[in-house]
Specification:
30% of the residues are buried. Helix 5 links the parallel strand 4 (122-128) and strand 5 (150-161). It is built from nine helices and seven strands; from the N terminus they run ααααββββαβααααββ. The radius of gyration is 21 Å and the shape is globular. Helices cover 37% and strands 17% of the residues. It is α/β, with parallel strands linked by helices. A seven-stranded mixed β-sheet has the order 3-2-1-4-5-7-6. The chain has one domain (32-250): Vaccinia Virus protein VP39 (Rossmann fold, 3-Layer(aba) Sandwich), CATH 3.40.50.150. Helix 6 (163-170) runs antiparallel to helix 8 (187-196).
Length: 252
Amino acid sequence: MNRKPAQTDLDLDLGLDLEHYLRGPVTISGNEGYPPLPPLSGLARALVPEAVAPALRRMLTDLLRPWARRRAVALRGRCPLLLHLGSGRFPKDGWVNIDLVGVPVDLPWNLARGIPFPTARADAVFHEHLLEHLSLAAGYRLLRECARVLKPGGVLRIGVPDVGAYLRSYAGMSDFIARLRPGRPTALLAVQEVFYHHGHQSAYDLETLQLLCHGAGFVRVEQRPFGQSRLRPAPDSPHRRAETLYVEAVKP
């Protein structure tokens, strides 16, 4: 009779760790300041299946497009005109916060349709943890739109998960993974979260982000530390600080 090999304590520990990990949710160290969902958004998330929520938000946003275009015209006169794209739950005071229906916004808009402002009108554009939710091609199109709407000398500030830091840590060059995503059964599972979780469709390191920004027409594309910016005050979100690569670029 064939017998299964005896299960060691190590096997049991790894199996329990993996089952616990797969049940989730997983957290990121340094994200403790992440604000809770507003009551209505929390209710909607509970009622609407996660798989259909993005499409539903896009559909509802598109239904509001005629009103949103009129709203964008009314917002053009702001001085300075500061555009916060993909603002989510983190609207910034003094900025025009733009996102799909379902979060607090000044302008409900699907950015796949471009940015609804005239050429060379905005003083600054900021987006943080938005690009990774778009395909590489869609992200490049958005950066070209950012260049279009900015005035000459206008500033683009971008924040994305720092995939370069994760890969260097995976290669044993730092303890970044252990600090940011502790308790994962393996380091590769931590890296996979950056590539595949939360609807991510693309990933960036400094070299790749610089390539796209230069291609979109920007100059002086430079990495900037958290909170250090040509923009005053820097619009960075404190809970994003630990794992975010910030890059600034200038419209020539």
